[in-house]
Amino acid sequence: MQASGRRGALLCAICCALGAGCAGPAERGAVPVRPGAGLDGGLPDGALDLAVPDADVDAGVDVGPPPSRAVWLVSRAQPHADGLRAQLQPPHAPTGDDPAALLPEAALLVAWAGPADDPRLSRAWATERPVGVLYDLGDRLAGRDDAAERRALAVADVSGLIAALSAARYPLLWRERPLVLVDGPWDAAMNDAFAAARARADDLGAALSWGAIVDPTASWIADPAQADGPPDDLDPIVPRCAVADAAARSRARQWSDGHDAGDGRWLPCLAPPTNPRLDTPRAPADAPDLDSLRRRLVLARRVGAPVVIVDGAGAWRDDRQLDPVSGPSTGAPVSLTTAWVYRGYGTARVDAVRRFLLTPAGRAPGPLADPPVLLDLVRSVGVIVERLESTADGLALRLQDVTERGRYEVLLDDRPFVVTPGLALTYRRTDPAVAVDLIFEDGARLRDLLPDAGEDVVRRGLDPFVGRRVEEATLVYAGGRARLDARIVAPRIASPAESGAPAR
Q: Are 374 and 34 in contact (CB under 8 A)?
């Protein structure tokens, strides 16, 4: 698997045969609490807003390696004038550059809906970054009732796409082949047309990696007896980025795992909060706050996949754009905003992507939650949080758990670091039902690797994990109490000389 590209001689030969020209390979250059949904299943049941400032990496810390994951950015070409921000009263305006230049650290997935998008795809393929294709075959086939017409359209599309690939300086590779992600309903009509498109690619000798974008709420995911769904050999599998339903995404991931060849093919995808009311009046709209995006970024990276996909540059229509925006705060017109307040967020959305997915490791943070992030990540139905706050010596949490089997997780510290010899996690707690957990880059959790013995004074030596990157420290309540009133005192990640004994 590879997230940057080289053009293969085979593709060159194919494109020559199609009359598209044979440019030689280029040398590769440097490419450059708040409430929330549960983690793949938990749902919020309250509206707690703890406006505590986020913790930044300390200025001047030693900078270590960046994360090993790649980030792919979905690039769309929706005009700002046709999008939700332009319809606000007063309207919001874009302040950034061409969406195709956004987040140059990431590879691009160019949304391509047939020949009309060829110029934009060609421009992207001429740049100094890896570029893949997100092919919305379902949209291309919409409204076409004749099966032969659908097959002919898909065959023509893929023929032109393979010809255009001759211009790709750095095609985005997956398993050493240029990647095409295909979106659509994956019903019988689409599968028939897609099979014709794949056969055409095989006839041309084009070695492509075909992946699938799937709707996590599709009925065939919940009901394995249904015949619909993408072919089993497609790889990777990606959920639609704008569908944030945690339970549905969890079912879709389980479905993908059940069809997996054994080495993992599920790639998480996320988008900022969306508002579809320009196309579907009276549809529900997400709260347009930055915490929702931050939460989705944290939960996506917890999957531990080699790639996280983020939508999207130029995605103005339903307000999922990452592009910088300026404008006064407004809740008008209510028919569009549902009375949510929309703010000109500047560069905050793209900054959040960099922070949570691309930040290099620094030194071990020492005192945790100093100041605390306190971003609500996971809350099961039936968990009612009455108090969560930073105190002089740590953190205080009071909640009710109707089922006594609930779960609640809060991000405390998001400063990534690589474990060095002698580091330990230390703290004192007043109830063993709460704990501080560390999440590694691959999604592994410290509490799973070193089981919790329930002690009041906790010291977890991290020497077994030397060299591994830690991405977050999280406060966890994992059930067992009808009511909980607990404190975490002096949480730290430091060497023995720096930490001393946990406070009593």
A: yes
